[in-house]
């Protein structure tokens, strides 16, 4: 009986810690960055060319415009990605800010995740630097409890996409 109480106490402790995570961390934030050996205008143009995005985001199956605004800010797109298990996930992307050759802020609404990617572009000594400040939130409290434990996975994936972009643009 004493062993059962100890095991039950450990399980309850882990459950309390896990559920407290969602109260303490409302969102998961991280930064990724890459330097590209190309002019700013070329990098910015290619980065924002939705017809080329599958060249650095291999999981992306399709991107379809829903509502495209002439100034880009406010435009929305339907995206379909395929995860590692072969499942297709549909998400909606909204352009929250678009300043040519300076900044693009994208908001993604996926099935369980709300994510904002704030990309800034700068140029110095022949090198364009892309910095992405990302913020992830869950659509539910339980999902929000999980996200802080996957911060390194999210960051690694976004860094991989930036590295893929760098490789793609520097080859062309």
List the helices and strands and how they pair.
Blueprint: H1 2-24, E1 28-36, H2 40-47, E2 60-67, E3 76-82, E4 88-99, E5 103-109, E6 113-124, E7 127-138, H3 141-146, H4 151-171
Antiparallel strand pairs: 1-7, 2-3, 3-4, 4-5, 5-6, 6-7
Can I get a quick summary?
The chain is α+β, with helices and mostly antiparallel strands. 34% of the residues lie in helices and 39% in strands.
Total of domains? 1
Mean pLDDT: 92
Structural class call reads alpha+beta
> How do the strands line up in the largest sheet?
1-7-6-5-4-3-2
For the record, the CATH class is Alpha Beta
Question: N-to-C terminal Cα separation, in Å?
Answer: 69 Å
- Main beta sheet: 7 strands, antiparallel
CATH superfamily: START domain
* Helical residue percent band: 25-40%
- Which blocks of ≥5 consecutive residues have pLDDT under 50? none
Radius of gyration: 19 Å
Which architecture name does CATH use? 2-Layer Sandwich
Transmembrane segments: 6-25
Keywords: Membrane, Transmembrane, Transmembrane helix
Domain Activator of Hsp90 ATPase homologue 1/2-like C-terminal: 39-109
Family: Belongs to the AHA1 family.
């Amino acid at each position: 009986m004493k062993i059962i109480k100890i095991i039950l106490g450990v399980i309850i402790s882990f459950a309390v810690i896990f559920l407290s995570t969602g109260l303490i961390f409302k969102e998961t934030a991280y930064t990724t960055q890459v330097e590209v050996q190309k002019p700013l205008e070329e990098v910015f143009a290619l980065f924002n060319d939705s017809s080329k995005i599958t060249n650095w985001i291999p999981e992306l199956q399709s991107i379809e415009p829903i509502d495209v605004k002439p100034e880009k800010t406010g435009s929305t797109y339907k995206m379909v990605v395929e995860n590692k298990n072969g499942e297709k996930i549909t998400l909606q992307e909204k352009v929250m800010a678009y300043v040519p050759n300076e900044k693009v802020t994208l908001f993604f609404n996926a099935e369980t995740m709300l994510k904002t990617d704030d990309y800034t572009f700068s140029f110095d000594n022949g090198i364009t630097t892309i910095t992405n400040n990302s913020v992830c939130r869950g659509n539910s409290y339980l999902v929000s409890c999980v996200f802080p434990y996957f911060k390194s996975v999210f960051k690694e994936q976004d860094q991989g996409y930036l590295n893929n972009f760098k490789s793609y643009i520097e080859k062309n």
